[in-house]
Amino acid sequence: MLAKILASIFIVSLFVGLVACGDPTSVAAVAQNPSSSSNWQDYKSATGRFTVTIPGTFNEVVAPSKMGSGTVADVHSFNLATTDVTNGFTVNYFDLPAEYASAPSAKLLDSLRDGLATSLQIQQPNQGAVTSSKVTSEKQITLGSATGRELEMENGTSTYARAKIFLQGMRAYHVVAIMQAKDKGNATIQGYAQRFLDSFVIN
């Protein structure tokens, strides 16, 4: 149940954030522009309590979403992307409702993972049946006191994503670099995606 709720949250945040984003920077575009290496800067969110390095400026969107028994949580989405949702850098965070306080962190991370994989079904428009992304790689990670997972996901031949998800207390984060599947083997593009993912810290 929680995975379905998180999936709907991620779908809304990706669509709203990417459409509202005014900076036409994608993972591939950064790699194709040598001058982009000098545009990377630290972005710090005081309310989100995180810092991440990005090649531009984030667009922030806050959208209320229903969770669990009807509790409304504000989902904060930070996006740097093209209006084409096959490329982009994004960070989302939200606070889980108190009803999940006793849930094991491993199960919550499973739900965060499954929700994210389901949300990436939006990356395959006009291709018949809608399917979730397949998690092709997963490992446990930590960041300070936060527990997390590092993921790779694919959705057919269209979309490839690398992500890190974290839980610190009742706050959930997901940090994602979305790109076209054809760029999976591009070392330059993967280097920029790794730089973004590795720069994320919880303050």
What would you note in describing this structure?
It is built from 4 helices and 10 strands; from the N terminus they run H-H-E-E-E-E-E-H-E-E-E-E-H-E. It has one domain: Mog1/PsbP, alpha/beta/alpha sandwich (Protein Transport Mog1p, Chain A). Helix 1 crosses helix 3. With 203 residues, the protein is α+β, with helices and mostly antiparallel strands.
Question: What's the layout of helices and strands?
Answer:
Elements: H1 2-20, H2 27-32, E1 41-45, E2 50-54, E3 59-67, E4 71-81, E5 88-95, H3 105-119, E6 134-143, E7 146-155, E8 159-168, E9 171-180, H4 187-199, E10 201-202
Antiparallel strand pairs: 1-2, 2-10, 3-4, 4-5, 5-9, 6-7, 7-8, 8-9
Question: Notable features of this structure?
Answer:
203 residues; alpha+beta; Protein Transport Mog1p, Chain A; seven-stranded antiparallel β-sheet; three-stranded antiparallel β-sheet; 4 helices; 10 strands; globular
Compact overview of the structure:
The chain is of the alpha+beta class and 203 residues long. The protein has 4 helices and 10 strands. Helix 1 (2-20) crosses helix 3.
CATH names the topology as Protein Transport Mog1p, Chain A
CATH secondary-structure class: Alpha Beta
What would the average pLDDT be, to the nearest integer? Answer: 77
Taking pLDDT < 50 over at least 5 consecutive residues as the criterion, the unreliable ranges are: 15-25, 82-86, 122-126
Beta-strand content estimate? 35-45%
What is the structural class? alpha+beta
Helix content: 25-40%
Measured distance between first and last alpha carbons: 30 Å
Assign the CATH superfamily: Mog1/PsbP, alpha/beta/alpha sandwich
Order of helices and strands: HHEEEEEHEEEEHE
Instruction: Give the tally of structural domains.
Output: 1
Helical region count?
Answer: 4
Radius of gyration: 16 Å
Strand element count: 10
CATH level-two architecture? 3-Layer(aba) Sandwich
Largest beta sheet, briefly? 7 strands, antiparallel
Globally, the shape reads globular
User: Strand arrangement, largest sheet?
Assistant: 3-4-5-9-8-7-6
